[in-house]
Model the fold of this input.
Amino acid sequence: MQYNFNAIEAKWQKKWSEEQTFVAEVSQEQKKFYSLDMFPYPSGAGLHVGHPLGYIASDIVARYKRHLGYNVLHPQGYDSFGLPAEQYAIQTGQHPAKTTQTNIKRYRKQLDQIGFSFDWSKEVRTSNPDYYRWTQWIFMQLFNSYYCYNTHKAKPIEELINHFEEKGNSGLNVASDENLTIFSATEWKQYSPEQKEAILLQYRLTYLAETEVNWCPALGTVLANDEVVNGRSERGGHPVHKKKMKQWSMRISAYAERLLKDLNQLDWSDSIKEAQRNWIGKSEGASVCFKVKNHQADIEVFTTRPDTIFGVSFMTLAPEHDLVKTITTSKQKQAVEDYIEAASLKSERDRMADVKTISGVFTGAYAVHPFTQEPIPIWIGDYVLAGYGTGAVMAVPCGDQRDFDFAQHFNLPIPNVFEGVDVSKEAYTDKENTVITNSDFLNGLAGKKAIKEAIKALEEKNIGQRQTNFRLRDAVFSRQRYWGEPFPVYYVNGLPRLIDEKHLPLVLPEIDEYLPTEDGAPPLGRAKNWAWNTQTNQVVENSKTDHISVFPLELNTMPGWAGSSWYLFRYMDSQNNEAIASKEALDYWQNVDLYIGGSEHATGHLLYARFWTKFLNDLGLIPVEEPFKKMINQGMILGESAFAYRKKGTNEFISKNKIGNIEVDPIHVDVSMVNLSNELDIEAFKKWRAEFESAKFVTEENGSFVVGREVEKMSKSKYNVVNPDDICEAYGADTLRMYEMFLGPIEQAKPWNTAGITGVHNFLRKFWKLYHNGEQFEVTDLPASKEALKTLHKTIKKVTEDIENFSFNTSVSTFMIAVNELAKQKCNAKEVLAPLAVLISPFAPHIAEELWEKMGHNDSIAKVPYPKFEEKHVVEDTKTYPISFNGKMRFTLDLPLSLSKEEIEEIVMKEEKTMQQLAGKTPKKVIVVPGKIVNIVG
RNA sequence: GCUCGGAUGGUGGAAUUGGUAGACACGUUGGACUUAAAAUCCAAUGACCAUUGCGGUCGUGCGGGUUCAAGUCCCGCUCCGAGUACCA
Done:
């Protein structure tokens, strides 16, 4: 009988959906297991073959846990706000909601076709008002909270107001902006409501602040670093420069210590935890205050090496540092301004990455060394970043390589403060093994002791103090985009007010074009109805704005990570209209037992979700402090990107072999427009984007246009996406599932390649044939042979271990070996074949269901108890020993496992082949490891 | 640059604690079946030397080291991938 996978798979997918096989409800009698995937962004390119890799793995575990008797929550949804839909809207004029809807439909069809055991009744979409209502609600809770360092918890802002009313703002140990003005209770009471609100914003967990952005005047918008290439916009090649903008920020830095500490309790890979540790970047040291000569100003720096303070020979400020303009001398003014202008064109990443080009300008001003009172020249240099620490460093060239390089480049002195160390060629950065010299009271001290003494002196002289710094910056939360959650905020006299909870969701308004306004306001500035009437609590026409009862609404929207920071809780009770989820559901499902997704989210999504979880826990809204207990990071399935090369600054494309010395920018082209010989379909390319319609092409002699290829992340923005649909069609979902697992370790990245898929497909056909005799289904009730039972139990053991270790590729191999063996043994005993079907059902659920049904069962295989491994079927009494000479295996010998070390040695030494190998020589040593190996050393 | 990964046959990969390197597949080659093809089945397949058989040498990105024994541990590199704070 033919293995008709298309029919079988359609049949069972329909059945699972009709019978709601995988719907999970809170059940106090059953232990829970929450298996979650990072939900997809429904891109126009469709689900690509990289997505299912993780989904298949989590589905295998979900199905496996059901066999073990767990109540499994395994939901799926869509991260459906985001830039690509908006970009598409700009290009085509279609509403992002509409294209998103279309894309979701396609994703759903593709997901269904792979046979996942998702509970679709719990689906969420971050762009649904029913969902983002709660995202807005959480934003409001953040706005209404501050962070107390004494209790290590977020607290209602009212408590802070009470404190202000009683004691002013001194003596508080709470998270806030820097540069606070200290006020008394009396002063607080005299402040106007506007002044009070401005002060409170300095404490709220989400607040407005001036932040630097990449501003592209031609596009009238802010660009991600990603979208800026060599100081120009990726789209259109327009100039981009740094600009300060007032934006919402999230005070994640308040949680830095907890985010760091609680990593220890997570069952995540060490590498991801390490990445988060480094991202949070806790460093201990001191803040030091340098006076500026002939100015009132102070420059504050943070250093982890206060012990080297006598090695300071200059200071470097970020070009954007506030003081630069005031301290620069008239003589240096022009040079400094030019430098600032040049630096504003560079991206932060370029500034960090480019250590070879050393640049900087002297401001003409001097600081005063706090101990020696010597003047220290103040420079600006783009290796110092404004958003980092205080945006200023005390440069110690003998102890820091970047400072050293800077000093050497500009001929600045390099005083040595390390005893017996040569610093003429490079800086000496070892903290521990050094003794300080040329440093007054620090002379002769070493390591931690020197640091401690330095800090003590700084504190005594009141010019600095011990300080713990975090690299983690507060997260900018505003986007100048249309397709995101609107802020539930309106402005009274320029200060933010929240609309009342009752009136959520604040629904995204309609606009005529998805572009910024002519005067550079975000797209929501185009909305005709985007003002808030505080009388009726409704969105009304902008023209009604009177700043008395009708006020303008916020024009920014929230970033992509807002909706994904808490979605795991919404799945528990996704239809709830009263709360993010019911208490009952939150208490039962707790948090995610297994989270599978890419490690590229290591420091983005995974940190923000932890932050929001902790915050919601602080408010008592959820019972857990961490969202994801265990996580597995699937390696990326990489795509082969295609590039067309555009001559710099033109709209002329040059075929790969014609480039020669011409300077070109590589531009991603959609892989679907490129054939197997790497030739581009020029007509399709021209139609692809308006800007290419008038492009010119330099082709090869034969008229073809050749593109470049590179293996990269598979991503819509790289236009290199390959879909799983064709594979399901040609080989079936079970084959796709097993093939993706067979490709290699789940955590390892690999380029997509379908070369081996027939092997897996053939395996499933062989598996099917085990249960058949020619055209007839044939499984007998006769007892199985000893060998067959051995094969089965060996397989149970290995596959189970592999699932527990997330080593799915080796379980597929194990199934292949089992089927090869059972086929050889001509086994068709139900005693073996029934448990085998259960064993394979997490991997290939459709074929397993079908065979299970044929074996006479009416119910789904999904919740059938997992087969039990029995040791007695697999015990071995002999071992094939490798006999090595000097570590090289020469022959093998079958010996009983019961033999002792001495007995083994005796037998081996008597063996004729041993004599041959030794050729009359006496061995120096014989190493016998029973059950493992014999090694004879000559 | 910095942070985190990775590198094993022609290809994807396997190898529990350091203990027979290359399981399982793909591909290739040869054979069976067939009028033929497909499908299926059987055999060989790391490289090199030898080949009548027994065998031997080299071999896990590169260079060192530890060990009776290293793909695995240590030190130093090279190349590739991811992240780098507005792609998601």
Notes: Residues 878-937 of chain A form a domain with the Ubiquitin-like (UB roll) fold (CATH 3.10.20.590).
